[in-house]
Design a protein that fits this description.
- By secondary structure, the chain is α/β, with parallel strands linked by helices.
- The chain has 2 domains: 39 residues; 114 residues, Ribonuclease Inhibitor (Leucine-rich repeat, LRR (right-handed beta-alpha superhelix)).
- Helix content is 19%, strand content 12%.
- Strand 1 and strand 2 form a beta hairpin.
- It is elongated, with a radius of gyration of 26 Å.
């Protein structure tokens, strides 16, 4: 049934007025429900089979060859409902069996990165993460930290339990960076 502006009810009110009232009521009800349900943004909302709200799709435009890192990133994106690469700012991938960081540079907004107790050797990918302020790399197989020495916002790096780390490289980190050194340094 189509509503037109000229239709009148016996009480003299137009159906359009009633429709506007119903629409206002539905909007108010939606706002009430959405403010009381914190995870409502995860669900599509329909009314009379019409979409009222569809959540944004989580970000998937990245390629991470290392299975452990890929799984960790996928979980972080899902948990945080991240919709863009720049939306991922904190990542904890401890004990994930990660051997390669290839592809991680896609997430340029990362500020905090925890990669403790993995099997990392090469940090080249981290040199492109210029927003990093904290980097935890304890318990890996890192030899050379040169790729992270020019990160402009880095304030803290932890490197304990990296038995093969060349200690001379630590001097290349700026004075502003707090360093947790391996025992042999």
């Amino acid at each position: 049934m189509k509503l037109t502006f000229s239709e009148l009810n016996p009480d003299g009110c137009t159906r359009v007025t009633r429709y506007r009232f119903a629409a206002s009521l539905i909007t108010a009800l939606y706002l009430l429900i959405s403010s009381s349900c914190s995870n409502l943004n995860e669900y599509e909302i329909t009314f009379n089979e019409r979409k009222i709200y569809s959540p944004s799709a989580v970000f998937t435009d990245y390629d991470i060859p290392d299975v452990g890192l890929a799984t960790c990133i996928e979980q972080a994106i899902e948990d945080g409902q991240i919709t863009s690469a720049s939306g991922l700012e904190i990542l904890n991938c401890s004990n994930a069996g990660i051997a390669s960081l290839d592809g991680l540079s896609r997430f340029t907004a990362l500020k905090g990165l925890k990669l403790t107790d993995n099997s990392l050797l090469n940090l080249m990918e981290l040199s492109q993460l210029t927003e990093l302020t904290e980097l935890q790399l304890d318990g890996n197989r890192i030899v050379d930290i040169v790729p992270i020495t020019r990160l402009p916002h880095l304030r803290r790096v932890t490197l304990s339990r990296n038995q093969n780390l060349q200690c001379t490289g630590l001097a290349r980190l700026p004075d502003r960076v707090e360093i947790v050194r391996p025992g042999h340094c």
